[in-house]
């Protein structure tokens, strides 16, 4: 264990947090769990530490480093890190675990069969291979959610972009809930994403709201919970209605912006993919915001 202490200690210093043997043990245990899940994939502990350190959330977005480490999907994170480091056999291991889900996501978006292989290659190039000036996106995976869900989000987003460019009808192609009615037959991929990411979005909303200044929280409560319009809010504060409108808009934008930032940190996906996740659950977003404020 002595040879592992130095990089683990470096991780804590880079993250700007304190710690001791408990943190060292937690990180070491995660590494060993990942290695047991993928015994054929060589990965240096130093590479693992750098990967985890790069994706630590802000200090105000987590309780303790131990709690954060305990929430990570160790086996998925190990595989993602091995792919990012181009470890021998990593791509093959990734395909053996996630290729079927990738194919299923493309089928669920009604992608024409003759285009599925093209899009499959595009997704794999973006996630695993990388492009000139753009490293593989697998390096952005932070381990906060299952890697399979992360792959599905990236695949569905690629499929939707293709359908937009091809001019397909978005409703027939499985548009997001706020853009077209959902099909009467449940979509297993969409159901998975909603079930998984609804909890992540709700928690991010809660944390983002708690971090707003008190005046913004109060204005949003008046708007969402009490149902006050702009004129009523202006009367409450004795301000011009244009000022009240700016306050509501500013508070809502700050809430959504911080929510997206937290999701990006916690899910290990980029801003555009966060938009896709939020879009998938957007039909429940206003209800979630109202419920959040009523519980606050």
Automatic annotation (TrEMBL):
This is RNA polymerase sigma factor 70 region 4 type 2 domain-containing protein. Residues 203-255 form the RNA polymerase sigma factor 70 region 4 type domain. Pfam families: Sigma70_r4_2. Belongs to the sigma-70 factor family. ECF subfamily. One of its GO terms (molecular function) is DNA binding. GO terms for biological process: DNA-templated transcription initiation. Keywords: DNA-binding, Sigma factor, Transcription, Transcription regulation. It comes from the Bacteria. Gene3D superfamilies: 1.10.1740.10, Winged helix-like DNA-binding domain superfamily/Winged helix DNA-binding domain.
């Amino acid at each position: 264990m002595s040879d592992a202490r130095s990089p683990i200690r470096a991780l804590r210093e880079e993250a700007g947090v304190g710690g001791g043997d408990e943190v060292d043990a937690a990180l070491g245990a995660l590494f060993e769990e990942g290695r047991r899940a993928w015994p054929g994939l060589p990965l240096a502990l130093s590479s693992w530490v750098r990967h985890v350190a790069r994706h630590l959330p802000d200090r105000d977005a987590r309780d303790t480093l131990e709690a954060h480490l305990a929430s990570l999907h160790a086996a998925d994170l190990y595989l993602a890190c091995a792919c990012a480091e181009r470890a021998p056999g990593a791509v093959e291991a990734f395909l053996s675990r996630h290729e079927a889900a990738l194919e299923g996501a493309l089928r669920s978006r009604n992608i024409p069969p003759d285009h599925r292989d093209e899009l499959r290659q595009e997704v794999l190039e973006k996630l695993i291979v990388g492009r000139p000036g753009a490293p593989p996106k697998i390096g952005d995976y932070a381990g906060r959610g299952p890697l399979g869900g992360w792959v599905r989000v990236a695949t569905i987003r690629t499929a939707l972009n293709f359908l937009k460019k091809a001019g397909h009808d978005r409703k027939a192609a499985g548009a997001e809930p706020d853009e077209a009615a959902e099909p009467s037959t449940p979509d297993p991929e969409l159901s998975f994403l909603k079930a998984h990411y609804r909890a992540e979005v709700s928690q991010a909303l809660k944390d983002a709201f708690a971090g707003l200044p008190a005046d913004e929280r109060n204005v949003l409560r008046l708007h969402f919970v009490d149902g006050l319009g702009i004129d009523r809010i202006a009367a409450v504060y004795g301000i011009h209605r244009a000022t009240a409108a700016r306050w509501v808009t500013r508070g809502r934008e700050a809430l959504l912006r911080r929510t997206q930032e937290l999701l990006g940190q916690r899910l290990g996906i980029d801003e555009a993919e966060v938009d896709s996740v939020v879009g998938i659950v957007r039909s429940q977003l206003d209800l979630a915001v109202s419920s959040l404020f009523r519980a606050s």
